[in-house]
Amino acid sequence: MSSNDQTVLGSVAGLWRYPVKSMLGEELDVVEITGQGLAGDRAYALVDGSDGRVATAKNPRKWPRLFDCEAAFVSDPIAGARNPLVRITLPDGTIVTSDASDRNTILSQALDREVTLEAAGSGREPGATSTSEAYWPDMEGLAHPDSVTEFELPEGTFFDAGVVNLLTTSTLERLRDIYPQGRFESPRFRPNLVVQTIGGMDGFVEDGWAGQTLAVGDEVRLSITRSCSRCVMTTLPQGDLPRDLDILRTIVKSNNAHVGVYASVVRVGTVRRGDCVRVV
Question: Is 164 exposed, middle or buried (0-12, 13-18, 19+ CB in 10 A)?
Answer without folding.
Answer: buried
